[in-house]
Design the sequence.
């Protein structure tokens, strides 16, 4: 089930929380919302779930318009809000049954779904406890379980792994990936590694506008069109090596680093110098001890775009 | 309807799990029992088999207890953010409000049901006007429904339960007594309006055993107004 957001604008007073953004998420895609705090991630998600009424713009979930058929839209969506609000005084199972009832799951299927959710989200040992007795990580699982219980086509998760320990984070990421194969998933995060690990596509939002859209690789390419290599050589003479490297056709810049025979090499746009450098070393019988492509980190892209 | 009942059931359960329900039952039965039977100026003073003095006492105790029940119903959802969970489920704002309204009303009805023994006891003391007793209970239920609706509105406007409690009392006191007092001090049209707005007028007329459509319309309008105001606030908070 596709999600189409068209020209979404949300104002709080005279302030634009979200300013005229449009995007589309396709079935089977896991979309990661990335952005600094207050960028408009949560607002956008709340608008898709019909909790917030947009100032302007259209949102469609599958064949339904959020504005005109909110009830139908809400049936398709499993939503984990930010800060994961829960009825703390209820036992886990009672709470999940309450949500299942509200979602209109048939009476004879409720028990199976409850057991399934308890299993999938790892709540076996906690299912009879009251929610306020649970640790943050387990509460987060309860939040996920209530979002998944009616097997929705669309999942919207606002910071799904906040408060989890590293093992749980890995588990939840795996879970999201598995779910994401058949469903449409939007998740927000400010942890870059998380978005990179779970999402097929990344949308970076800053000050209410989309500043980047694409897979992690595409974003890297956009940010740095040129290949950068770290190079270390032994058994060579510094100036000779430097000159020889400069002479390579595809090389644009050679930087001498502190280490005597270590260089940073930037190739010309859309070319690679790896082969040429290797051959150069063979010709001069220099020993090549390092040849590492430098990957632009998602962090750097993020900093550049959201400065 | 199914959704409303699911919501109401959860609210009722949470009343009973959080002791609120038991405290209400004990306090209501304690107060009304004390003033009806033991305080001196009680049911025995009237000299006839009638529950009028009990209805007069319940009129006041419920007035104070109901805001205590409703104060958290929406304010707490606003504060903890669970309102977002509810409203992103396939249910409407109306169903949420009506569900909460019903749960509190049912709790009050349970409290009133525990006073049925008063009725049985008094009816053994002498000839009792059965119609008037049932009308009295109906009047109490209608009054409670009105204050629950007002209480829900008061609770919807903020994240703070205390605000919900005090605002409900503030609005309620006008209908409970102030309009009645004012109606005596104004003459002509204004006096009539005050007289009509006063809840006590309509309460008394029903609890005497006269069920007039005029009074029913008054109560139903007040309930509808309170609930509509609460719904309006909830919808407004999302824009």
Sequence:
């Amino acid at each position: 089930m596709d999600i189409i957001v068209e020209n979404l604008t949300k104002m709080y007073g005279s302030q634009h929380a979200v300013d005229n953004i449009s995007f589309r998420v396709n079935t089977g895609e896991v979309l990661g919302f990335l952005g600094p705090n207050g960028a408009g991630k949560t607002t956008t998600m709340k608008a898709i779930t019909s909790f917030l009424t947009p100032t302007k713009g259209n949102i469609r979930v599958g064949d339904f318009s959020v504005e005109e058929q909110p009830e139908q839209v809400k049936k398709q969506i499993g939503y984990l809000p930010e800060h994961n609000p829960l009825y703390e005084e209820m036992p886990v199972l009672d709470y999940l049954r309450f949500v299942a009832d509200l979602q209109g799951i048939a009476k004879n299927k409720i028990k199976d779904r409850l057991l399934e959710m308890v299993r999938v989200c790892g709540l076996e040992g906690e299912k009879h406890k009251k929610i306020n007795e649970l640790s943050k990580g387990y509460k987060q699982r309860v939040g996920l379980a209530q979002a998944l219980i009616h097997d929705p086509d669309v999942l919207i998760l606002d910071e799904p792994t906040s408060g989890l320990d590293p093992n749980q984070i890995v588990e939840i990421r795996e879970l999201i990936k598995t779910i994401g194969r058949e469903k449409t998933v939007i998740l927000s995060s400010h942890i870059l590694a998380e978005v990179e690990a779970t999402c097929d596509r990344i949308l970076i939002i800053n000050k209410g506008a989309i500043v980047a859209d694409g897979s992690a690789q595409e974003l890297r390419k956009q940010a740095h069109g040129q290949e950068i290599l770290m190079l270390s050589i032994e058994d060579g003479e510094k100036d000779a090596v430097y000159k020889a490297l400069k002479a390579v056709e595809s090389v644009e810049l050679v930087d001498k680093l502190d280490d005597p025979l270590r260089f940073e090499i930037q190739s010309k746009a859309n070319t690679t110098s790896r082969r040429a450098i290797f051959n150069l070393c063979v010709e001069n019988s220099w020993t090549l001890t390092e040849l590492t492509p430098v990957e632009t980190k998602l962090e750097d892209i993020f900093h550049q775009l959201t400065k | 309807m199914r959704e409303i009942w699911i919501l109401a059931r959860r609210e009722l359960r949470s009343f009973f799990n959080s002791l609120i329900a038991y405290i209400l039952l004990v306090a209501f039965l304690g107060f009304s029992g004390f003033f009806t039977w033991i305080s001196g100026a009680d049911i025995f003073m009237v000299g006839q088999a009638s529950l009028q003095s009990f209805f007069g006492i319940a009129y006041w105790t419920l007035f104070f207890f109901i805001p205590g029940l409703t104060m958290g119903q929406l304010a707490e959802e606003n504060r903890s953010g669970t309102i977002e969970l509810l409203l992103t489920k396939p249910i409407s704002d109306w169903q949420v409000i009506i569900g909460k309204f019903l749960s509190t009303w049912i709790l009050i009805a349970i409290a009133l049901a525990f006073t049925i023994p008063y009725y049985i006891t008094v009816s053994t003391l002498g000839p009792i006007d059965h119609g008037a007793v049932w009308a009295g209970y109906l009047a109490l239920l209608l009054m409670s429904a009105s204050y629950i609706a007002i209480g829900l509105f008061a609770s919807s406007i903020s994240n703070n339960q205390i605000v919900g409690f005090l605002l409900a009392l503030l609005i309620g006191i006008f209908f409970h007594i102030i309009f009645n007092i004012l109606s005596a001090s104004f003459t002509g049209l204004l006096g009539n309006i005050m007289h009509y707005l006063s809840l006590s007028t309509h309460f008394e007329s029903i609890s005497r055993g006269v069920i007039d459509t005029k009074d029913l319309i008054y109560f139903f309008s007040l309930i509808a107004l309170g609930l509509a105001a609460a719904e309006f606030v909830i919808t407004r908070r999302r824009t």
In short: The interface with chain B takes residues 46, 49-53, 71-72, 74-75, 77, 79, 81, 83, 85-90, 94, 98-99, 101-104, 146 of chain A (CB under 8 Å).
